[in-house]
Amino acid sequence: MATNSEVLKDIWTRLKEQEFAKTSSLSSNKSLWNKLLYYTVAAITDYLCKDDAEADADLRLRLEFSGKFFETLPRIKLTNNGLFRDEELVLFSAVAYAFAGYPGASAVALDDLKGDKLSLVERVLADVLKHGSSNFPWEKSQIGMTMALVFSGNENITFLYEQVDSLIENAYQHGTDMDIIVAECVRRVISNCWSNSTLRLMPVFSNTTSNQWAPAIIAGKLHPVLWKAQRELGKHNVFQGSSAVVQLPTGSGKTASFSLILRSGLYRNSYHVAIVVAPFKSIRDEIFRNLEKQFQKEQIDINRISTELKIDFSDFTFKERPVVLIVTPEKLLFMIQHSPDFLAEVGLFIFDEAHQLDNSERGVTFELLLSTIDLLVSKEVQKVFVSAVIGNLDDISGWFNSGKNVVVNELSPRKFGRILGYSKWQDKTMHGELYTWSKLQKINSWIEFPNFYQPVQIGKSKIQPDFNVQSHTEGARWATALTTRQFVKGGMVAVYAPRKDSINGLSKVFVELKNKFSEHNEMNNAISVLCNLFALNFGENSILVNAYRSGVFVHDGDVPDGIRSSLEFEAHRGNIRLLLCTNTLAQGVNLPIKTLIITSVGNGSLELNASDTINLVGRAGRAGTVNESNIIFMQNGNSSADKLSRRALTNLMWDSPANALGSSLASLFQPTAIDAYNRALGDLKVTDWCVEDFLDDPLAWITLRVEKLSPKQSKSYGNVLLEKANGIWKIENYLMSVWDVIQEGNQEENIELIAHRTFAATRIEDDELELMIWTFEYLGRKIAQLGSQHSITAMGKMMVGVNEALKIEDFVESYAELILTDDALDRIIMDIWPILREAIPVKDQANEELYQLLLVEWVQGKSFFEILESWKLAYPENRFGNRKPTVEKVYQICSQVFQFDMQLKVNSLMELVSDRNKHNRLERLQIAMKTGLAGKTANSFYEAGIDDRVLANRFSAKMGIEDASQNEVAMWMHNNREELIAEFENILPAYFQKKI
Questions:
Q1: Could you give the 3-state DSSP secondary structure of residue 933?
Q2: Which of 337, 340, 525, 824 qualifies as a cystine partner to 737, CB 3.0-4.6 A?
Q3: Cα–Cα distance measured from residue 553 to residue 546, given in angstroms and rounded to the nearest whole number
Q4: What count of Cα atoms within 13 Å lies in the side-chain half-sphere of residue 120?
């Protein structure tokens, strides 16, 4: 006799067969399907008989099981399935999920409810599951309307219970058995919701009043019921100002939690300034949009501070209203170094995606930022460390805010919301196979779809996938594309690849596949407009533009911000079915992804660890958006890569915990692979490089070290040593930025104390810690030797190390009278080129004149494809490696070298140039380098939210004013909105239409 789990597995598999239009290897026993009704309804009635609102672990699992059964069966279109589209089952799915504690899943289950075949009492139940605020296609029930009033503070709960008692009495006297169960469900849903209502709990959790919370609930800015994550925060006094280390699994309501933390402090008047730190610009923008909507028209300012390293922040002391600042770590560190006094006004810090502490590229900066705040800000000021993946909570808690915090980690994800699997090509049978697994199965049990996809003929004789040695990579891409094609039918698919060149190769294959099957459906107008704008940026010959026009959308760092934001906006509107992405997806972007195809977990420096994988797969099946996700790993016949993928898959099956969060600063002093892709070269030990000569002049030491090596070894050693040098420069800059604190007492003792207060000090061995402390002290002595001849404080503001600061200082002193005498941006560039050229990668400095040309065109506002044409015309033979010039390479240079590396050089110069006119010229260049726009008005449009260079330039030209401010362009857009939309309708995506 089949177990209940086996029956549900059978049902779920039939749904997958329908979704894929493919047959599985699992034999079916449909005669048992309906028998699960007794078991699943019993889970609900058992819950109704309990006094406790929160189900124990066993009952919770039964309820989730029931929710999955009720949700799945009505979706299976078979002639002998009499429950196809049965709305009563859909309703009970929502009930089961709600009782199990998954309100997001409950809401999704109700999304398509029509109500045609529901009884009146069942419609009441649907209304209360939506807290009386639904938009169902029927007249809202009296109980639903009363519930909405009660939960917003406009009616007494007693009156609602009286109505419910009447409903139950009528069900018992005149209704069916099912009516009685439904009526009892209405009572329990209302009782549970009231116990967890925002209006009831938040005043207690935050030491405020219900009158303060009611307006935001009435306005629909706050959910009327707290999710479990928010209740846990309340129980741990986070809403009363306690600092905390919080692990919030993906989909547990992080955005709502941020809003509640900010509101609690606002209502208690506990901060004048609150700061939310987001590790990436994309996350900063998403948080800003959410909070701006949450606090619209309230007595608080929500500000998204730019990422430019310039002084564009106000003196918050004189702000009348409280303010929330959303910033990146680099910008906040810059703000502290320039105006540390503003920290006295800050009463709350929230650090989002804080596991980036262990990010190899930016982790050192983030850790030193946290150390700076720990050094300069009182421990009584609330600080909240938030991440979905912390494998060592106790370690983080013991260090963060000097250990004065609480730990919140009592949340568990749904078990039956995800299908895991792998896809592989079978040479013997010449077809692709899919193997799937869910929590309903034993670990070593797989359901096989043996004929998942067929090969395709390309041209006259070529068959793909072809895994011959000569075409293995191409074969793997075709296998991915053919696998993806089967999943696209069921919802949005994201295809992850760790390398950008893999994404480009995949996009070509996907386009070719669409051409093969003539799958170019008439393009949605919104998408056509987005493609038109992208073409004006990159040109019609761009690989990416061609992919977009074919319905293959790439989401990675090589797509301009405005285009990427427009793409995400359209994805949320349901207009995007296929997304190819790199690690930008794992950085916290929230999209309605149903299926995630993982082509590879990478290797070497790009390999995903357990935490990375958990974070990545959390992007699919978002709570409140999609109730079910597919996570599929590709097996491509590469034994080492396939082994890594299977290991990652097994870890997900076993719910392996996240990695212990490490320290990028600590990794500087730990053995490092000389070449992550060639382990034969061994590791670089800290004693190999951490010596006085290296610390005195890292670049000179590296040059001497690598010049006698072979070209390949020289590259490997040079890269890893430059990583060490970058870390040393950041430590130097950090010490210079807090030099005033270091000088308050014994210098050596203070520096040792600062080193001990880093997270790195808790993550390394004693001998490594001893060498790290020696390094800090040696660098401190190096800084002290600067003496009174140099301003250490000014150097600390330059965001560079000691040697570079001295070099820039010498340049300014030597050429102060000769440079920056002309307003023209191209002349300013040439004047300071000796400093700017240092930002060009060493291997590319032979192309110095090309970089000059590209930079001048960039700051003049030329589009990317126009810059490419200038490159081809002026320097047709100049290439990077053996690759022809492409618009994508132009974008990489502009976005990485000009917008960040060279802009940092300009910032350093600005700290030393005192002449106001010359300083203003540098500031103009800095802004132009960051945005790629020349005029003030165009830059004002960019900062006002039109962060696409083509649109900013065209709006600027239409406005016809040279020096308009951000407020002026915002008002002009508001006043001319209809005219702008009409004139630019073919290149103005809906995302930007909403902004104006």
A1: coil
A2: 337
A3: 10
A4: 9
Residue 426 β-bridge partners: 431
424 DSSP β-pair partners: 433, 635
Neighbours of 821 (CB within 10 A): 13
- DSSP letters for 410-449: -----SSSEEEEEEEEETTTTEEEEEEE-TTS-TT--EEE
Instruction: Give the residue-averaged pLDDT of 292-304.
Output: 90
How many other C-beta atoms can be found within 10 angstroms of the C-beta atom of residue 679?
Answer: 11
The three-state DSSP-derived secondary structure of 254-290 is HHHHHHHHHHHHHHHCCCCEEEEECCCHHHHHHHHHH
Question: What pLDDT, on the 0 to 100 scale, is given for residue 668?
Answer: 94
β-pairing, 406-408 vs 346-351, is: unpaired
Could you report the per-residue pLDDT of 580-622, keeping only the tens digit for each? 998 877 666 788 999 999 999 887 677 888 888 988 898 888 8
Nearest residue to 226 (alpha-carbon basis) of 254, 262, 202: 202
With 0-12 / 13-18 / 19 or more C-beta atoms within 10 angstroms meaning exposed / middle / buried, residue 276 is: buried
Strands 578-581 and 493-496: parallel
Query: What distance, in Å, lies between the first and last C-alpha atoms of the chain?
Result: 63
Residue 453 phi, psi dihedral angles, 5° rounding: -150, 155
Q: Cα-flanking dihedrals φ and ψ of residue 471, to 5°?
A: -130, 30
- Please give the Cα distance from 163 to 622 (Å, whole number): 35
Question: Counting beta carbons within 10 angstroms of the beta carbon of residue 52, is it exposed (0 to 12), middle (13 to 18) or buried (19 or more)?
Answer: exposed
* CA neighbor of 365 nearest in space, from 911, 943, 904: 904
Q: What is the pLDDT of residue 413?
A: 76
Reply yes or no on whether the pLDDT at 522 is more than 70: no
Residue 990 structure tokens: 């809906």
Residue 931 has pLDDT above 70, yes or no: yes
Answer left, alpha or beta for residue 258, where phi above 0 means left and psi between -120 and 50 means alpha: alpha
Inform me whether the pLDDT recorded for 498 exceeds 60: yes
Per-residue pLDDT, 431: 93
- Mean of the per-residue pLDDT values of the chain: 91
Position 447, amino acid? I
Q: What b-and-e string marks burial along 60-92, b requiring 16 or more CB atoms within 10 Å of the CB? A: bbbbbbbbbbbbbbbbbeeeebebeebbbbbbb
Going by DSSP bridges, is the β-strand pair 493-496/418-426 parallel, antiparallel, or unpaired?
unpaired
For the chain, how many residues are written?
Answer: 996
Is 728 within 8 Å of 775 (Cβ atoms)?
Answer: yes
**For 99, how many CA atoms within 13 A lie in the half-sphere containing its CB?**
38
Can you tell me the distance from the alpha carbon of 667 to that of 360, in angstroms, rounded to the nearest whole number?
9
Using an 8 Å Cβ cutoff, are 420 and 429 in contact? Answer: no
d(CA 197, CA 88): 26
pLDDT recorded at residue 315: 60
Q: Shortest CA distance to 631 belongs to which of 597, 681, 601? A: 597
Q: Which helix (H) or strand (E) holds 733?
A: helix 711-737
Write the pLDDT tens digit of every residue in 766-777: 999 999 999 999
Residue-level pLDDT at 519: 66
What's the pTM value of the predicted model, to 2 decimals? Answer: 0.92
Residue 882, Cβ neighbours under 10 Å: how many? Answer: 5
Distance of alpha carbon 155 from alpha carbon 152, whole angstroms: 8
Residue partners of 398: CB distance under 8 A and separation at least 6: 762
Give pLDDT, residue 308. Answer: 66
pLDDT recorded at residue 30: 82
Q: What percent of the chain has pLDDT over 70?
A: 97
Question: Which value, in Å, is the radius of gyration of the alpha carbons in the chain?
Answer: 30
Q: Supply the pLDDT for residue 1.
A: 56
- Per the CB < 8 A criterion, the answer to whether 64 and 98 are in contact is no
Phi, psi of 755 (to 5 degrees): -65, -40
> In this structure, are residues 92 and 137 in contact, taking their beta carbons and an 8 Å threshold?
no
Residue 812 C-alpha from the chain's centroid: 40
Residue 244 to residues 271, 663, 720: CA-CA distances in angstroms? 17, 19, 35
